[in-house]
Amino acid sequence: MQPLSATKQLSHNDYTVAWICALPHEKTAARNMLDELHINPPQPEYDKNIYTFGGIHGHNVVIICQGDMGTTAAATVATRMDMVFRHLRFGLLVGIAGGVPDKKDVRLGDVIISKGDGVSGGVVAHDRGKVTETGFQTRPFLNGVPEVLRNAFNELASRHMDQDNKIAEYISQATARNPRFQQFNWPNLDDYLYKSHYVHVDPMDVKCDQCNKNEEHIVTRNIRDVPKNVPFVHFGTIASGNQVIKSAAERAGIAATHPGVLAVEMEAAGLMNVFGCATIRGICDYADSHKNDGWQNYAAATAAACAREVLEIIPTMKLEAMPAISAASIANTGAPIFLVPFPRDSYFVGRDTELRLLEDMLSRESNRFTEAAIVGLGGVGKTQIANEYAHRQYEKEKQKGPHDRQAIIWIHASSQARVEHSFKDIARKLNLISDQQTTEDVFPAVKDWFQSNDSGRWLLIMDNADDEEVFFKPFVSKNPLLHTGITRRLCDFLPEKSNCTILYTSRHHTCARELLKRTHSSKIMEVPMMSLEDSVRLLKNELGILGTLEALTIDELSMERLVELLGNLPLAITQAASFIRVNDLTPEVYTSLYDEMETEQEAFLKEEFVDWRRDSDMPNAVLLTWKLSFEQIRRKNEVAVKVLSILSVLDRHGLPDWMFP
């Protein structure tokens, strides 16, 4: 047998199941569970995701691997998929996890399926909550698994009472079809569960060869009456957070706080409240200091095979009759219209003053249309403040009656193409145009909706409005029906309506002032650098250690020195934390490397990283972000560029304020 070859091409609307992975080998396992492989349909230019399309037991499945681990990355993947795939019925988050064997006989290669226990919806966020006098209280996720999946899980549990699961069978079939999948078979390694007091001996010994395996250090477990390559499937709660758990004590603490937890991982908490999904995890380690990579491929395969068995149970006709989880028909649901491409940032800290000021700026005068702008240096956090404000407003709107609710809509404004894509997305999700209508219909249709009675009150956020030419430079778009050109400006399609608001974010005061001219508004908020305290909190959050025991082992002064070296700039702090995590460093080591030489600093600041909380078209590296602003200045004023170049070699403390009006 040969690996699958793509045989047919469907449209995005034909896919009903989203299969989400966090790691490349998880996607490999998923791809090898397909019955058929599909040719990729044409992809919108604004969608940067890489998909694999195929079929399993008659269901059309789209598979995606996140660009990074963590809850925020998972939430953003779901949000972006929702923009493209309008007929998805549910999602499956499938991959590996650390086992929690403290209360149940969970072993390497076993599969855990998230299932509610009456307290949570199958997933708990073990690192979110609040610090109280009695300790750290976590928050359960009440959004549960979709009904069709709950029913499928109950059927699966019933079958497994008197039948073997099909995991080994499906892995064997995949290996027969693709011999290179052999590396995902049972690894023929010993499965040792070390007692919680016994810590891994040698950090350089990745296979635990030096660890003592006598009865004093190993948990004695009964021999199972099934072959070793036949894993068990368990149903229970999965703990999710933004940090890798490599401590038996930390694992035991999670188990004590949440008695039903059988596994710990890093993505599910980002999906449960934004996407109808369930989590299926293969156990690759015990979330302790002895964890290694030897079981990862097999665990990825057992999880994927179990997901395939779940899809076998669900009838295709039943799935087609379900409503889509997409927001495509949101205008008819009665829910507040909320078209924001970013999930709420769980790492967001501080900015209370700026959020209060923004609230005051956007408070509406009776029967007036309001415009305001957030202005600041690239990377200072303008988009994050606007996103946090949007999510806070959304929480308020959900408490109001249907006729009093405010729509909250986001537009990427960094280029004409990005604005056009945003308008198209709004038109699709609000059912303003049919699939047969042309691009020429989008701009007037969206503007007309904003200005109609149907839209009610609304807040429109125009993010990254950095260039006046995007809005005011005439451009010609061709009408394929009339074979003529239509001259237009994007500013002509910006809506205006009483009791409604447009909020711009921009790097440049000149662009902000130009956009606000039509309403003679002077409501511009300058975003300062973060305070030292909030900068340290952000660093801890990004490192995944805020509120954990690990935070107590890191020198507070070293973190303060690091964020001060980075100028308390949020993007630089996020970038540094990403570098520290990926390279397994400490803040002290990173600071030492940063101090070594100027060229090293430049290399660090140019290092790109995946940040799902920012527009995918905007650079994430600090120097690249600043270079973008610098090039915009160069296009408009060559003399200003020469002056800035001279000033860059002078002592910044000696430069008078009057030079920077």
Q: Could you explain how this protein is built, in words?
A:
The chain folds into three domains: 6-320, Rossmann fold (3-Layer(aba) Sandwich); 330-526, 3-Layer(aba) Sandwich (Rossmann fold); 540-654, no CATH class. The termini are far apart. The chain has 661 residues and is of the alpha/beta class. Helices cover 34% and strands 18% of the residues. One of its GO terms (molecular function) is ADP binding. This is Nucleoside phosphorylase domain-containing protein. InterPro entries: NB-ARC, NLR-like, Nucleoside_phosphorylase_d, Nucleoside_phosphorylase_sf, P-loop_NTPase.
Summarize the structure.
The chain folds into three domains: 6-320, 3-Layer(aba) Sandwich (Rossmann fold); 330-526, 3-Layer(aba) Sandwich (Rossmann fold); 540-654, no CATH class.
Helix-strand blueprint:
Elements: E1 6-9, E2 17-21, H1 24-31, E3 36-39, E4 51-56, E5 59-65, H2 71-84, E6 90-99, E7 111-114, E8 123-132, E9 135-140, H3 147-162, H4 167-177, E10 233-240, H5 248-257, E11 261-265, E12 277-285, H6 296-313, H7 316-320, E13 338-339, H8 352-361, E14 370-375, H9 382-397, E15 406-412, H10 416-429, H11 442-450, E16 457-463, H12 468-472, E17 475-479, E18 484-488, E19 501-506, H13 509-516, E20 524-526, H14 532-543, H15 549-552, H16 556-565, H17 570-582, H18 587-596, H19 598-606, H20 622-636, H21 638-647
Parallel strand pairs: 1-3, 2-5, 2-6, 6-12, 7-10, 8-10, 10-11, 13-15, 14-19, 14-20, 15-16, 16-19
Antiparallel strand pairs: 3-4, 4-5, 6-11, 7-12, 8-9, 17-18
Helix pairs in contact: 1-6, 3-6, 4-6, 10-11, 14-16, 14-17, 16-18, 18-19, 20-21
